[in-house]
Amino acid sequence: xxxxxxxxxxxxxxxxxSCRSTTMNIRTKPYPIARIDTTVQDNYHGTTVRDPYRxxxxxxSAETAAWVAAENDVTQDYLAQIPFRDRIKERLxxxxxxxKEGTPFRVGEYYFFYKNDGLQNQSVLYYQKGPEGEPTVFxxxxxxxxxxxxxxxxxxxxxxxxxxAYSVARSGSDWVEICVMEVETRRQLADTIRWVKFSGASWAxxxxxxxxxxxxxxxxxxxxxxxxxxxVYFHRLGTSQDQDRLIYEDKAHPLRxxxxxxxxxxxxxxxxxxxxTSGTEILYKSTAEPNGGRFRTLxxxxxxxxxxxxxxxxxAYVLTNxxxxxxxxxxxxxxxxxxxxxxxxxIPESDHLLEWARTAGGVIFAGYLKDASSRVYQYSMEGRxxxxxxxxxxxxxxxxxxxxxxxxxxxxxxxxxxxxxxYRYSIADGTSTLYHRTQVSxxxxxxTVEQLFYPSKDGTRVPMFLVYKKGLVRDGSNPVYLYxxxxxxxxxxxxxxxxxxxxxxxxxxxxxxxxxxxxxxGEAWHRAGMLDKKQNVFDDFIAAAEYLIAExxxxxxxxxxxxxxxxxxxxxxxxxxxxxxxxxxxxxxxxLDMLRYHRFTIGWGWVVEYGSADNAADFPYLYKYSPLHxxxxxxxxxxxxxxxxxxxxxxxxxHSFKFGATLQAAQTAAGCDRPILLRVxxxxxHGAGKPISKSIQEQADIWSFFLWNAGIRxxx
Length: 716
Fold this sequence. Notes:
Layout: E1 41-44, E2 47-50, H1 62-80, H2 85-96, E3 100-101, E4 105-107, E5 110-116, E6 124-129, E7 136-139, E8 150-157, E9 163-170, E10 175-182, E11 188-197, E12 202-204, E13 207-212, E14 231-236, E15 245-248, E16 257-262, E17 268-274, E18 280-286, E19 296-299, E20 306-312, E21 315-320, E22 328-333, E23 344-347, E24 353-360, E25 363-370, E26 373-380, E27 385-389, E28 396-399, E29 408-415, E30 418-426, E31 432-437, E32 447-455, E33 461-469, E34 480-483, H3 500-505, E35 509-513, H4 523-527, H5 535-550, E36 559-564, H6 566-577, E37 584-588, H7 607-610, H8 619-625, E38 639-645, H9 654-669, E39 676-681, H10 692-709
């Protein structure tokens, strides 16, 4: 879900390079006819809403399959006519082809890390004895499928470090299968756990906890049917799944998520429940209670977020935004009659977002965001500040995990112009030592990062990162790829992308706007862009585009917008609200039908973020901005490529199908020749685990489409 390329800096004259004119010699095949069913309509609280393409929601029908195949044929025919598409793919292949190595972590006497030699479809998990040992392949997911579509989802290790439980996702689906292997011998055990979603293995003595759903009924689609009644089980090592013990279920609330885990000393068992993507409830009990005992409520849901990061004896350390929109680290006494009443600050709330907290070596590491850039501090277990950890610059830091007996930890750092780099950190004296630096074949020092702040429609000050080649001239001719997310309390921070280099090499700009709805400035920033305030998110993104144009970084003829998932909703809304601002748009795996999203897979979990059309109070604002329902016949929309995938069971492809059919019909009615393409990837899902080969081809198509519709006819 990232960016690319440019206009104005080629042999083509600026006068000719306008994506407001025709598509210049590219022939778009006729769009396939999408049957219009005039009988399908719903009454939402007195408002009748037609849904003529609802038949496209059936991902198992032959009619849908034929329509999708025809759409892909139109898309591939169009892209094949772009003369520099193959050259872009070739350059992207070169840019991706460098060794990528993750930050190591210790498990007993072994150190584990992920590595990709360059163009391997999936990164390989290696291990070695000691930090300087000889690396050996521990688990290679590339051997689990013929085409690289099987990906490692998570790997966890038993408390005695003897076993690894790893989950495998296939073709990009959220469904995973958990398998177990012995660390020392790499011997595969017979233990196999199926129908797991949004869960890994959380180890305890003799086995692990996991969460699963019931297997879908035969007549239902595993990739679109609504998922309900998640349950927590315990699997004893060496037994079959049908012998697993049910630990927790809530029959009264089928639309909740649940997960279970024990404290490291196995004295306490916790159940974490949530009704969506924010707000949690935590239950707990002592594992020493007769017959297992009953769960008690530690923190009642779901107004706040609570996350237990560690237990030391009877004290639980909890990261929470309860009474602290920027989060704080607190502690509770689990033996008290009312533990929640004993909640006390360990690290109080500050002016900046406390994004995460971890313990290792008898200390606490706290990761903050300051204007969407990482800051990390070391504290004592009592909350006394020891030191700030000096980082290389503006960027994103992660890692710092470990065990109580560790004397050092590892962390990673990256930025837009700094490939991922790993460091060893001495807990005692705070010394950071370079452990691994990623070597790339291009000069990252040629590019610069700028952070600026711009006013939104209501005057809110919003940060934005710009990345471009040094010496850039602000004359309005630079192609800009503007990206954002804006939701679910998720922060978008600086990170390295080899594919972005293509745009920068051509003189273009990659822009990342940290709009409301995200978590960059804590829960207040999040809440300012959710539910009935969602329009603030779109206003922030539109204001970013207007600012870039006003300040002559670019022009409407050179500006593309993109986003994935919730970011796909963002692009869909901004595309329908301000089609005049962009030459190309890329709604990727987007939530585009805001009236029916909650009826598929786990869409119900987003109601806490968006609201529901079933609620009379929510329907008006959802209907007002829902991208599908705000396409206006007679309007000429920018060139658009809608991207989805056949195994996306997070945001089902029906969103993109219905949006694409409706947008094509409106564009045709307007007599507008700007292409509306639907690109449906096969054997892929929402994005995670996508093979590098598919990523390169997808990016080549995105950059080719952007450049061509921005008027570029020759590459540098």
